[in-house]
Amino acid sequence: MALSGFSAGGNFAFTVPLMLYDLQNDVGKRTLSESANIKKTRSRPHSSASNRKGGSGHDLQRPSGGSTLELPRPTLTTTKSSTNSIFKLTDLEPTALEIQQEVPDLRLRAIVSFYPPTDFRQTRDEKRATNPLPEKNLPPMLTDLFDKSYMHPLETIDFTDPYLSPAAASDTFLRAAYPEDIILYTCEYDMLNAEGVAFGERLSSPEIGKKVHGGLIKESVHAFDKKPNPIRFPASADQCYAEACAELKRVFGGRSSFDERRQLDKSKTVDRFEDHDQRNQMTSEGERLIDDTNMADGVEGNDSGRWIGRPSMNDKGPGHDKISKREADGVL
């Protein structure tokens, strides 16, 4: 199977595989709790925080009851309406995983993620400063609503947990939990672009060794493909989806041409991860923030988590040729 998502869903596409890997290795299993109280999560063993304290970063021997996640047991309630009484659950039904600890037998073949947040260790102000056109950022009123909705209450959240910030995970964890093929798109005029590019570069580095497709879409804003248009669906959105589907077709054994996997180039300039070409031009403040905020940290010992080069800079060196069309047309 493959996982896909946009924005917050793009974050899920990167964090769910980490949880699945832990569950399949008897680490961090979720359990139902009678109490609905939300407890502050501690740094997980694969996170950068625990690694900086001397943790192994890949400890599969901790007790199975050591999950930091607790879920309330659903209860049946009655809601009055003008016409009838509506019975509903206050939460999702418990799953076989939560009740019987049965882990589904799943194999991930690819991740497709569009403009995801990958590192909540940085503040919104730090993220905003990385956008070369700050006026294109989502307004604070909207991002505050997102943060308070997805991470409530904020004061209880451990932002170094890889289940929230996949960029905080160790190289070892990411290498083991993620499939070989990653399809990632970021947007130049998006506060999430710098961290997304950094994460993509890190995933394709020799330390992790994933094949990262997609790239940085120039002169595009967050959710560029979600702008309502009653007349016509945006061509760039259609092309972006089509080339992502072409990549998935290749991953699952079909044939797709180089041109099919580069359709977005017809309407947008895309700095491709595969090409190691020039990334987006950030403000000097954005570059400083990347250097100062441990954006690509999250590893233990000598298992370096630094990406090769710095996102959005000229990182192509002499003799580093682009991928050939013949190589790109091959199938797995």
Structure, explained:
- The structure is a single chain.
- The strands form three sheets. The chain has a five-stranded mixed β-sheet, sandwiched between helices. The protein has a two-stranded parallel ribbon with strand order 2-3. Strands 4-5 form a two-stranded antiparallel ribbon.
- The protein is globular and about 50 Å long.
- The chain is built from ten helices and nine strands.
- It starts with a strand and ends with a helix.
- By secondary structure, the chain is of the alpha/beta class.
What is the distance, rounded to the nearest whole angstrom, between the alpha carbons of the first and last residues? 15 Å
Looking across the biggest beta sheet, what order are the strands in?
1-6-7-8-9
Mean pLDDT: 75
Structural class of the secondary structure composition? alpha/beta
| Residue share in β-strands | 5-15%
* Biggest sheet layout: 5 strands, mixed
Shape: globular
Q: Sketch the topology as an H/E string, one letter per element.
A: EHEHEEEHEHHHEHEHEHH
Q: Report the C-alpha radius of gyration, rounded.
A: 21 Å
Unreliable stretches (pLDDT < 50, length at least 5) are 32-45, 48-74, 76-90, 277-286, 296-332
Number of helices: 10
Helix content: 25-40%
Question: Tally of extended strands?
Answer: 9
